[in-house]
Predict the 3D structure of the following.
Amino acid sequence: MMNRMTIKNEVEFSGIGIHTGELVKVRLVPEMEPVKEAPTGVIFVREGVAIPAHITFVSSSRRCVVLSNGGVSVGTVEHLLAALWAFGITDVRIYVEGPEIPIGEGNAMHWVKLLSEAGVRELPYERSLIRIKEPIEVGDEQKGIYAMAEPCDRLCVHYTFKHERPFIGTQSFFGYDLRGLFVNEIAPARTFGFIEEVEELRRAGLGKGGSLDNCLIVFADGYSAPLKFENELVRHKVLDLLGDTVLLGRELIARIEVCMGGHDLHLQLMKRIWKRVIRDEG
């Protein structure tokens, strides 16, 4: 897929925001043809304000990714962005009536269904790439919390998640053909949270829309529901990471390795990559 892509048909989805608890409507609109100027990428639009899906517009990465422009924000964008990446969609306008993107069942399957209905259409523009030429690392490998990118012929991911609870232990996932794996192996993996974090989230004004229908809760002795995969937790981390790579505004070609990551660490890596791009392009 060397050319840029948009969706064929306008589609919409309504649902609850996991953090605000508000009902939100999202409408995806294709890049129209003929294109008079080069496409502008993935753009969220809320209250008439355009908010580009780019690392330079990230205002928060606490529990979810929030994008802001001129005081207007939209949060929890990562699962939708991951699905757009999986379908190869580089250009679309996303009109949002509410403060965050609906959570659905806590994974990306509702977006897979919606984008399948929308279809994809090629645009007469070559997609921009970022190729990693030398290793880039953030975090602290000695402490086992790090993220790194190194040269590869495509975007592939090796992710490790560890926890002291014996039934979690160490979970790992490696994906080389991530687009091929996405629908069946990554998109179904659900958002998860530890029971001891629930009250902390509520005190912070987050998690108001969270429920057993859209979040996998990790208790002291097990999970709130049967796992879809033995390593479902780390697969959801991969889902989040794929969404976070979209914030570069270009297709990332690299092998990414992450241990004990989250949005903060992912975005540290994306920012470092972006600075390298700016430096190299002068």
In short: The chain has a mean pLDDT of 94. The longest strand covers residues 23-30. The chain has six helices and 19 strands.
